[in-house]
Specification:
- By secondary structure, the protein is of the alpha+beta class.
- The chain folds into three domains: about 5-125, Tumour Suppressor Smad4 (Sandwich); about 135-240, no CATH class; about 240-309.
- The chain is built from seven helices and 18 strands.
- Strands 2-1-11-10-7-8 form a six-stranded antiparallel β-sheet.
- Helix 2 packs antiparallel against helix 4, helix 3 (about 190-195) crosses helix 4 and helix 5 packs across helix 6.
- The radius of gyration is 23 Å and the shape is elongated.
- The mean pLDDT is about 90.
Length: about 300
């Protein structure tokens, strides 16, 4: 038997700082009802919200028909297998599956619940009773934060500070705009997709007093759809099948294919490459998402119109 076990560590929300150890085998039912194994007292948690099962070294989570859903690594799930480092969103709490030294005896569920309640009291004291949502992207990625604020239908702005900064604006839980401080002219959706890939920096959610006024070029897609597309684009860009943002790029010499055979949008890309010569500068100025533009640049290289240096 391994001397390591697992625990659920609360990295955001009312119980932040708390930790609940998991038994080697069995089930753990989470919800608002006082009769359950792990009791989370908050409005966004259903009476019976989710079940964690541990069997033969495998850990899985199942949603129990909750009102606001269960999310794993930013994705809404009915059932999912869990591994170390996975993040679970239940209500307004984000829990992380972590490896811990295995307890000498059986898990005392009552004692574990008392530790959670003490963590909640300590967190309330530290925050002065305010329900501030703040932390670091190293612990709570932006996708988790967006799901949390979407589920709780918050209005305000996520302010990110660090070596990169920006803001994401929400109206009753729906993302309506995003701005990167270093390039405020980027279209909101392109800015949001880039910010989702950020892994460093501090964040704070600043609630909006009253209604959020209309924003320029508001994003119309639903938050969950945006998150899924942002994660897809980040995965595709990370595969390395497209030119890297830092790569130098130029028109192929000699240029054998005919420019007149290109559609207008690709001619525009060739012109941007000629003017700026670096992939990132082209991504910043071209219409379309970073993934769409990078794929078109890759195609133009393959067809002999462009070359990387």
């Amino acid at each position: 038997m391994s001397d390591r076990g697992f625990a659920l560590r609360f990295i955001s929300g009312k119980y932040q700082g708390g930790e609940y150890p998991l038994a080697e085998e069995g089930e753990l039912v989470i919800g608002r009802s006082s009769e359950l194994d792990m009791v989370l007292i908050e409005d966004m948690v259903s009476r019976k919200h989710a079940r964690i099962s541990l069997q033969q070294g495998e850990i899985s989570i199942s949603d129990l028909g909750s009102t606001n859903g269960t999310f794993v690594n930013g994705e809404k799930v009915k059932r999912a297998r869990l591994k170390e480092g996975d993040r679970i969103l239940i209500g307004t709490s984000i829990l992380k599956l972590v490896s811990v030294p295995r307890a000498a005896g059986a898990i005392d569920a009552k004692q574990a619940q008392q530790h959670l309640e003490k963590a909640a009291a300590a967190h309330e004291k530290r925050s002065g009773g305010r329900t501030a949502v703040q932390g670091r992207l190293e612990e709570v990625p932006l996708v988790d934060l967006l799901q949390l604020l979407s589920t709780s239908k918050k209005t305000g702005a996520i302010v990110i500070k660090g070596y990169r900064g920006g803001r994401v604006h929400l109206r009753t839980g729906k993302v309506v705009s995003a701005v990167i401080d270093a390039d405020p002219t980027l279209p909101p959706k392109k800015a949001l997709y880039r910010m989702v890939t950020w892994t460093q920096g501090g964040f704070e959610f600043v609630p909006q007093e009253g209604e959020l006024p209309p924003m320029p070029s508001e994003i119309t897609e639903g938050t969950e759809q945006l998150i899924m597309e942002a994660m897809h684009q980040a995965d595709e860009l990370a595969r390395g099948n497209v030119p890297a943002p830092t790569a130098a790029i130029g028109i192929a010499m000699p240029l054998n294919p005919k420019l007149r055979e290109l559609p207008p949008d690709e001619i525009d890309l060739v012109q941007l490459v000629h003017n700026y010569g670096v992939v990132q500068a082209v991504l910043d100025r071209a219409s379309g998402s970073d993934l769409e533009v990078a794929q078109k640049l890759g195609s133009l290289i393959q067809r002999g119109y462009l070359r990387q240096f």
